[in-house]
Amino acid sequence: MSHPAVRLVAISDQPLQVSDVLDSLDDAASGGLVLFVGRVRDHDHGQGVTGLSYSAHPSALDRLQEVCERIAGAHDVTAVAAVHRVGDLEIGDLAVVVATTAGHRGSSFEASRALIDTLKAEVPIWKHQRFSDGSDEWVGSP
User: Fold this and answer.
1) Model pTM?
2) Domain 6-37+58-125 adopts which CATH fold?
3) What percent of the chain is helix, strand and coil (3-state, nearest 5)?
4) Fewer beta carbons under 10 A from the terminal one: N or C of the chain?
């Protein structure tokens, strides 16, 4: 049974839209909304990044749902949303968008931080970075 606060959970090969996440969280009980947007940056570990791709294990969506359910149950929130992109991304593209709402800002800040940190630690989505010197790196792969 899904937690009623979990409003949007998705893994998509299409560009992410912050407005989709915000729209999913709209309700009159929320006094605070904390949003985190992860974007593809042009550097990592002192090297220039030219682009990257994300791959997801077939269980990734179920794991993302479980993480959202756990965060919703552990924090005093009114809504939770998380979306992650897969496929080829360019510099500046949105890779992940997470947000929570709560009656007060403190709960939403705590829940959003826990949501992104737990997602990155537990959801099997792997990043393949391409560097400007021609080398590459897999991040988060088993």
Assistant:
1) 0.94
2) Aldehyde Oxidoreductase; domain 3 (3.90.1170)
3) 30, 40, 30
4) N
